[in-house]
Protein 1
Amino acid sequence: MGSSGFNWKLADHPKLPKGKTVGLIVLDGWGEANPDQYNCIHVAETPVMDSFKKGAPERWRLVRAHGTAVGLPTEDDMGNSEVGHNALGAGRIFAQGAKLVDSALETGKLYEGEGFKYIKESFPTNTLHLIGLLSDGGVHSRLDQLLLLVKGASERGAKRIRVHILTDGRDVLDGSSVGFAETLENYLAELREKGVDAQIASGGGRMYVTMDRYENDWGVVKRGWDAQVLGEAPHKFRNAVEAIKTLRQEPNTSDQYLPPFVIVDENGKPVGPIVDGDAVVTFNFRADRMVMIAKALEYADFDKFDRVRFPKIRYAGMLQYDGELKLPSKYLVEPPEIDRTSGEYLTYNGVRTFACSETVKFGHVTFFWNGNRSGYFNPQMEEYVEIPSDSGITFNVQPKMKAVEIAEKARDAILSKKFEQVRVNLPNSDMVGHTGDIEATVVACKAADEAVKIIIDAIEQVGGIYVVTADHGNAEDMVKRNKKGQPLLDKNGNIQILTSHTLQPVPIAIGGPGLAPGVQFRKDVPNGGLANVAATVMNLHGFEAPADYETTLIEVVDN
């Protein structure tokens, strides 16, 4: 338990008692924005969340959940569930995904690492393949990083480069893939003039090709495998820009759902299948949608679909995507070292913990919360419960998802009095928000609010404390806007739906019969963010946070 010789003991809080049951609820994708018809949280009936906001002003506030507050490079970077839960659990801000890659590229450290040296062994005789999301969205990948990596590899001996693109339209505007493909094509053309054989080899939309997650649908990964590795796809084109423009004209097709295509030469032969001896890099920095393709590329023993052939390649991820599975075993950029998380401290100080969500966010409330670490700190002190998510449907079809089941598990854990911390993630507003279905997202927000009530009622019964917050925005703004904040219209005069996360702050509310009188949010932490929540929760468990944690949001004033 813990590192040897390290003192895990937390100081007692001078004014707050130990032993209270703390119900910790994370609403996924629940930000705070101006009330209008595109704010699904505002439109939905959410009496419980409304009551927190309208209640005691000293027990409700907003915190930052994007940009530098969660370790991302700029204030234009939307938060996401991974960095959000890292910050909530770690109590400190760590440089994340994009930032780590930026710094490794800038300093050249990337090219000195074990991962790059490994793939470089293929350069003299074979092809370097790059697979990932073609986007400047900054959530899973960034186009400028891809271009720098292509440049760096070509300067270090890569003579033949093939890029396998996945079009976005989820974190960025639908239709923007054409421009990204043109930018990439132009750069590869410059390299060809310098004698490097560099071209795009295949493509497809991110939600239909390669980028599935949580083993939801292996068919998505297989479509990618067939195009990228085997060079087989239903659509063949001479160049990628033409491919995207043509395929986008088909009914029910968008960037997210573009069917797979391969690029062929004048004889109709695919220009870039992956063969023995080649090097492959998956260049996304965000892990969740790379784990499945990583398994297909890395595991000799693999039964999720018929790979037809399994080339002997040198494969590396941009980062390691799963620390527990050590997947992939080779990667270009080292992960943030997140140590001494609040979960580990609290477990060590006798706080018994229950954590629960459904499949799509279970990893967030456990693995990411605990600093990108799988499993228990102490199985005697912790219980984690995963409720299977609906599979084979999009989440707007069943927008209530498993909110009630999660809430009932939490309620039972609270009423059992076996745990001092009961922690859940309610995914509805995020997962349904991503579908762009406004009506379904309204239903999702109501369902999440009803789930909060079930948990709060249990906290009331045991004389406990609740903390309700979120990891980033999504459902509070479902429309794209111009600089003045007015909704953007497409050429047919319809509003342009926003399916992505947002830059909005998120609420945090505290309360419950166990909350000591005089506890209130401080006025002197105006820029508080998700990382401040950990110290706050430690206080509510009766402990002072470690000195290097981001400061607590609460104080105790003598009445």
Protein 2
Amino acid sequence: MKHKDGKPYPPNKNSKKIQVTLIVVVLCGFSFYLGGIFCSEKDTYATKEVNREDETSIGNSAGSLQTRGNSFTECSADYQDYTPCTDPRRWKKYGLHRLTFMERHCPPNFERKECLVPPPDGYKVPIRWPKSKNECWYRNVPYDWINKQKSNQHWLVKEGEKFIFPGGGTMFPNGVGKYVDLMEDLIPEMKDGTVRTAIDTGCGVASWGGDLLDRGILTVSLAPRDNHEAQVQFALERGIPAVLGIISTQRLPFPSNSFDMAHCSRCLIPWTEFGGVYLLEVHRILRPGGFWVLSGPPVNYENRWRGWNTTIEEQRSDYEKLQDLLTSMCFKLYNKKDDIAVWQKLTDNSCYKKLDNSDSYPPKCDDGTEPDSAWYTPLRPCVVVPPATRKVKLNALAKWPERLHVAPERVSDIRGGSEGAFKHDDSKWKVRAKHYKKLLPAIGSEKVRNVMDMNTLYGGFAAALVEDPLWVMNVVSSYAANTLPVVFDRGLIGTFHDWCEAFSTYPRTYDLLHVDNLFTAESHRCEMKYVMLEMDRILRPNGYAIIRESSYFIDVVAPMAKGMRWSCHEEETEYSGQNEKILICQKKLWYSKETSL
């Protein structure tokens, strides 16, 4: 307002305060109204997916939990082999270049399934180890493609209700045993405990990794998800370590300088294309002194070229390109005979000095990307130079099994890590594992073969169970301290993962899942129900879960487990009276109400 002479009145402070107050009150009321609408709609939607039950109690020897149960619905029968982050239903959304559509592409939150993945029609409890190494139930992995297309190579044979695994492969149709015998002649370090960990890229049905288990070598078998072959599913059904994965545009989820050996048996990876990125990734994850084994084209091209639909000149050129690329990234030809060639990653870092030349190819990686960064990290056509220190070299590690309990030098790279901390962790898990076996006698029996430690530190749980007839996949959170190199240095296997996403495996592939305060560490980043549903997806029917958490999270998790048709009981830790509790659960075997498509 203004005076009659045109000058404005001075502002009234009390009037201004009243106006602001009115605005705030109106806005709060409006937001409360909108919130009421949203919440009512949300509750309506939730009742479609989750049935609220009355207050129930879960009886156990240590008392009972008074909680509210959540009942999850069943997924439709055509989701029996659902792999959320490598789902063929979504492949068309991604490019064909370098097979990027086969990499991890997790669905957005609004597409996430909140249902229980059913088993196939006729599913049976898996055949127990060691018998499972040679046979599995057909209805558990009902795929005939390999049987029909690879029948002359003896990958597997269907006999009645079972698949039989004769131990054949593309490069060893007469049996993997003789193939590995020749490999051991070429690499004596495979026989004296020097070589302990290996990775098989393009693993088939994991016969190579299965044979190495009997020789004291622990192998991660790697293959992509596909529509017909189900390579990784066959491997895990047999009780052999395997994960879904492909070398494409992203690094594999393993730290640098970790594996003692890498293997490719006619895996059809174009090693010299795209700047050699695929072979450069093998170089990154292979420790100095480690071995890269190749069988198939172009090895032994002089005698094999006629069967490869090519010319001898083309194969000679391919072999020379491969040899030149390996030499440029500091590999040397270690041994060669018949269809097998072996290269060794040099331990002398003076070789890498040539990469300082601006004209070198491939070039040396700059310091922009950590060598161990391996969760959705793009592949780069450059050489990751290993540290000059002895701590990652194969010949600097104790031989197996001594290396299992020796504190690796890389433990000092971890914040708070030391030899003392490692020894304390090692001793702690011996006590805990002994207690677990009292609570769950199935550990150490034929009932438990495939085990996952969902959030390990140094692999202590796996180390404590090393004498039992099982293997452990050690998982380190991509958001946690990088302790996975220590796991590999002590002769164990593992992978990086983010538990806010689905794991790279098929449903029904693990007999035992172990959780040590995972929910405490990760609940601020994602909803626990999705982690629990993922645990249900990858756990076999009649399989077990050991959930070690604070009392608070045990009370939250228990009703979710009940809603997934698990039977659970709460137990005390090895030192009763602590705030921590242990929930022991078993997943029930149930069948879909639908018929598979």
Protein 3
Amino acid sequence: MDSTALDFQPRTFSIKLWPPSESTRLMLVERMAKNLSTESIFSRKYGILGKEEAYENAKRIEDKCFGSADEHFKTEPDGDGSSAVQLYAKETSKLMLEVLKKGPGITTEPEAPVIDTSLEVADTVFDISGGARAFIEAEEAKELLSPLTKPGNSYKRICFSNRSFGIGAANVAGPILESIKTQLTEVDLSDFVAGRPEDEALDVMRIFSKALAGSVLRYLNISENALGEKGVRAFTELLKSQGGLEELYVMNDGISEEAAKALSELIPSTEKLKVLHFHNNMTGDEGAMSIAQMVKHSPNLESFRCSATRIGSDGGVALAEALGTCTHLKKLDIRDNLFGVEAGVALSKTLPKLHDLVELYLSDLNLENEGMLAITDVLKQSAPQLEILEMAGNEITAAAAKGLAECLTAMQSLKKLTLAENELKDSGAVTVAQSLQEGHPDLKELDVSTNMFQRSGARCFAQAIANKPGFVLLNINANFISEEGVDELKEILKGGKNSLEVLGPLDENDPEGDPEDDGEEEDGEDDEDGEEKDGHDNGDGGLGSKLQDLKVEEEN
């Protein structure tokens, strides 16, 4: 036997969770900023932060928590960093809550003395969603819900999210909710049967539905409950009694074609509806027809989100046409569907009717050049006030750059522009960048990552934003910029008013990449969750996915 075989030692592998990459840290900042500036049960209680204030707080929080977690990691250098990750997540959640409790900063002098209404606010909001997710049974429900039983209480808004109710707890909650339903205006039942067997979960829903039937709500959230058609129909009594809803959230609920039809049938009127969020369901084209009927009869709609719902061309056309009645729409988010060119063209016929539109999210719709140009051609005339435009992942090439640039030139109010994961290459990148160089004083974020451009495109984008006041982030990662090109764009940014701090990570830049070699990647391509398809992680040990569900949690 070969003596070397006796000395063989099996190789061992370990995954380091700490430190996170720059792109992961940037992702966390963006997610925190979004949480701080998005309406939630916390913002309704303490006030909502503006996007700039939220971003500044998010950067400060992340920097502080990273420092603390990194110091902690140094005490366990031989570990995998899991405890540092836990500390990082825990502290960010804690500091986010502190920021929310302080409320938004005062940017203008009040016209009249500010009256302290904190006591009134505290008395009108009942929220048990804080802390870790927990199963609730009868005895705990009695104690937890006891404030709702006090005579003369003035609770108007309740949030039972993040607590999983069993039959016993539901039977306790039912009579309590029925006794106060006439004073309720907002009910959040999102994620309130997690981990329960289907039959038990449906019975719990029926109990809550019966107890709350007849209440006059302006806000209802039944997201994160894996409803399906059975779940929607379990809420029949409640839904049938809600003709004055202003906000309805049915996200990540397994809403199929049949469930969407049931939802449309059960709600008697959507005339007052201002917010309809329908993200991450399996609606498909047929289900989209039912949602389109709801939208068509919602003339006061201001925010519509129907992203990641598996809607194809036919459903996309139906939705586009229905949106024509929503002339007060300010935010439209239909990302991550299979619309294609035909639905894109149909949408272009509706957009001129939406004069108040401020945010438009059209990423990953397979629009291609034809669909995109149909949309941008009308936007340059009808939506100069647009502040956010996202058109990533639509196979936009340099051939469409001129039309896109003309549209962007007209949009002088833009604050955020996302064109990632297209195929602009150098010629298209230069054309688009030049359209942004003059004006656009409010532009804060520009994402043109993964666009196959090289040094020329990178240089022009750097020049376009180098002197814009208040600019925050330039993402040009995952392109083909040479080392000399990277040095050049850094020098441009250093010489501008914004400095190098606005440049995002370049860890996925390929200085030797060839824009003409645009064949499909083979096995091992990263998926959208930050882990490769063959099971290996992307260098963070999956840290990005571990932090993706970071939430603000009320302390127990």
